[in-house]
Amino acid sequence: MNIQWFPGHMTKTMRLIEENIKSVDIVVEILDARIPRSSKNPQIDALIGDKKRLVVLNKSDIADRLETEKWLKYFEKNGISAMAVSSVQGKNLNSVLEKCRDILSDKIEAWKSRGIVNRSLKMMIVGVPNVGKSSFINKLANKKSAKTGDKPGITRGKQWVRIASGFELLDTPGVLWPKFDDQTVGMRLAFTGAVKDEIMDVEELAMHLLELLRENYPNSLTERYKMTDFENLGGYEMLELLGRKRGFVVSGGEIDTLRAANVLLDEFRAATLGKITLDKVGEQE
């Protein structure tokens, strides 16, 4: 599956990040806890440079807890401050601001030595589409300051949001990169909804997801769809089996595999299949 998606507004977003990076004190990079590697835009590192940074693994409430812990240790080992949060549940969000203050402690002390006190700390929020940036900001600000939605590409412009705890947040639209050198990355972004379904072959995408779940979370398929004896089936055969188990049978006894594919993707994204992490630490190293 060849996945490419880089709308024109994403070029503008990269320029927006580059133009504003000097005016912020810290960058908060939001990753999807289910795909920490795949949801990390490699172009962001070059734009951020040596700017202070905090990596936030969002949606940790629907990710595999043990895998999330491994990822936090991975980032720590590589000298990157990271923490897991759930914007939907509000879990650990207050700790994000505390962590940012801790990371910026030297800069804050330098300001105080120059008589600068109570200066708002400016943070830039970056991430690929659909990682929950807007929900993250709204929870921090305790209001609906940023637009939210379950489709990628909701936020389209630069938004500064002031919050009561002495921070100003710069929201940026979700941005992918022009080419996925590793198509596995493209597929996993598509699994989570970071790439619009309208440009995808949804059935082929579902087939790949079924194969991945079979290898890593087979019980999710058994418990949700009552699927058994699928160890040696191909992706399309598994999709047909899922459709048969759910009763998606059309005239002539054929299986409505498109409907089965949409159901699978919707239920994976809603965590109906359980807490699942697709990117594993060390998988590609």
From TrEMBL:
Keywords: Cytoplasm, GTP-binding, Nucleotide-binding. This is Ribosome biogenesis GTPase A. It comes from Qingrenia yutianensis. It is found in: Cytoplasm. Required for a late step of 50S ribosomal subunit assembly. Has GTPase activity. It comes from the Bacteria. GO terms for cellular component: cytoplasm. Belongs to the TRAFAC class YlqF/YawG GTPase family. MTG1 subfamily. SUPFAM superfamilies: P-loop containing nucleoside triphosphate hydrolases. Its main location: cytoplasm. NCBIfam families: GTPase_YlqF. Pfam families: MMR_HSR1. The lineage of its organism: Bacteria, Bacillati, Bacillota, Clostridia, Eubacteriales. CDD domains: YlqF (cd01856). One of its GO terms (biological process) is translation. The gene is ylqF.
